[in-house]
Amino acid sequence: MHARYVLLLMLLLPLSLNAGQAQPEPIASGSRQLVLVISESWDAPSAQMQTFERKYGQWKAQAAPTAVMIGKNGMGWGSGLHPAQVQGPVKAEGDGKAPAGIFAIGTAFGYSPSIATGLPYLTMTVDDWCIDVNESPWYNRIVSTTNVGLAAIEGSSEPMRRDIHLNGDLLYAAGFVIQHNPGNTPRLGSCIFAHLWRSPASATAGCTAMPEPVMQNLLAWLDEKKQPVFVALPRTEYQRLRLAWHLPLWKN
């Protein structure tokens, strides 16, 4: 065979091998709990939430859907466990959108010394803040001023004890971290939580909000050992990606 054709085959072989390789699943096989949030459109500030548990490889609904509120400007693609998408809006800092995609569920938090949950739990204090300042080295992290100093929270709008800093606000009295932007990349969006809602008509700055009884039941159900994931999508994207991402069947 001519040397130029041998070289061409050598160059093309890695491409053909990669083309035949299956892409990694966005939801790990060890994940057995899933919180699914579906909105009617990219711009909708409200959604429906339902929980699922995986048994024998199949997702089974654990409760009926319930109403939640999301970003005041709907959703935009976030950074999480899912592959990057090329269609639809993209989440950015301060855009009023909740991140769309698949995300790990992190630490639970609240104002009480303890709470009923299978997640790790942190009691928030007056010193705890989540940093939403793009230029900060602590961007997208919950920090304590006792560790990082008062200068580190300058410009941040996210005190974790909102009841103390924001006139009795109870939004963060119970909640958990949705691990959007795990690389803490500036301007991609920060401090994304599931937390209590102010009212059934009050949208958020990018979090997912719900009534206190719903949050209590959700926290009690979530179990770190089952590697829970949080999935948020507009209905059209859910329909487009459900089979490829092996998501539960949404019947609502």
How would you describe this structure to a colleague?
- This protein is of the alpha/beta class and 252 residues long.
- The chain has one domain (31-241).
- 17% of the residues lie in helices and 28% in strands.
- The protein has helices at residues 3-20, 145-148, 162-165, 212-221, 235-241; strands at residues 33-39, 46-55, 58-61, 66-69, 75-77, 98-110, 121-123, 128-130, 142-144, 158-159, 174-178, 193-196, 208-210, 229-234.
- Strands 1, 2, 3, 4, 5, 6, 7, 11, 12, 13 and 14 form an eleven-stranded mixed sheet that branches. Strands 9-8-10 form a three-stranded antiparallel sheet.
- Mean pLDDT is 91; it is low at 1-22.
Please describe the biggest sheet, giving its number of strands, its sense, and whether it closes into a barrel: 11 strands, mixed
Total E-strand runs: 14
Task: Kindly state the percentage of residues in helix.
Answer: 10-25%
| Overall pLDDT score | 91
Per DSSP, what share of the residues sits in E-state strands of 2 or more residues?
Answer: 25-35%
Write the H/E string, N to C: HEEEEEEEEEHEHEEEHEH
Structural class, by secondary structure, is alpha/beta
What is the approximate shape? globular
Q: What ranges have pLDDT less than 50 throughout 5 or more consecutive residues?
A: 1-22
Q: List the total number of helices.
A: 5
Overall number of structural domains: 1
Amino-to-carboxy terminus distance: 61 Å
User: Radius of gyration over alpha carbons?
Assistant: 20 Å
